[in-house]
Design brief:
Order of helices and strands: HHHEEHHHHHHH
Distance between the termini: 54 Å
Number of strands: 2
Largest sheet: 2 strands, antiparallel
Strand content: under 5%
Number of domains: 2
Helix content: 55-70%
Structural class: mainly alpha
Number of helices: 10
Shape: elongated
Radius of gyration: 23 Å
């Protein structure tokens, strides 16, 4: 039963999450800088081979990608393959204080926030000032507001 659940989730990832999220982001990011990205582990022959592997070759003792790690151990130092996943972070915190500051200031101006009448200008301005003075890192909540403001400017004006 557990194997069936894992196989179902793997199939759903392959049919939706990969093409609709991960691969789309990779494609957009790479094309934005004229870079052609390749995903060799998604070659149809690799996918077909992996689909026919027994579950204990894919996951063993709670460790995923087991067979891939066994093959890599012959060619790549273990400390590079036996470690936790590490995401790619975007330096929004620094961008808002640097190259995006003027753009953000425009979207977060008190006058504009008051005129829109949707968001709380006092709270947003307080967070913006705290972020600029490095009193607090409000990058994520400010980014959400900025995306809303940019969307509103583009589509509602």
């Amino acid at each position: 039963m557990e194997n069936q659940f894992v196989e179902t989730m793997q199939m759903l990832d392959m049919l939706s999450y990969l093409p609709d999220d991960i691969l789309t982001k990779v494609d957009r990011a790479s094309m934005a800088v004229s870079l052609e990205a390749r995903v060799p582990l998604l070659d149809h022959r690799v996918i077909e081979f992996a689909a026919h592997l027994p579950m204990n070759a894919k996951i063993r003792n709670g460790e995923g990608k087991w067979i891939l790690k066994q093959v890599l151990a012959h060619y790549v130092p273990t400390h590079l393959t036996d470690r936790p996943k590490k995401g790619f972070g975007v330096p929004i915190e620094q961008w808002l204080r640097g190259p995006l500051r003027e753009w953000a200031e425009h979207l977060l101006s008190k006058k504009r926030l008051q005129a829109d009448g949707i968001l709380n200008p006092a709270l947003i301005r307080k967070r913006w000032e705290e972020h600029l003075t490095e009193k607090w890192n409000w990058q994520y909540s400010l980014w959400g507001v900025l995306m809303f403001q940019a969307w509103q400017e583009r589509w509602m004006k």
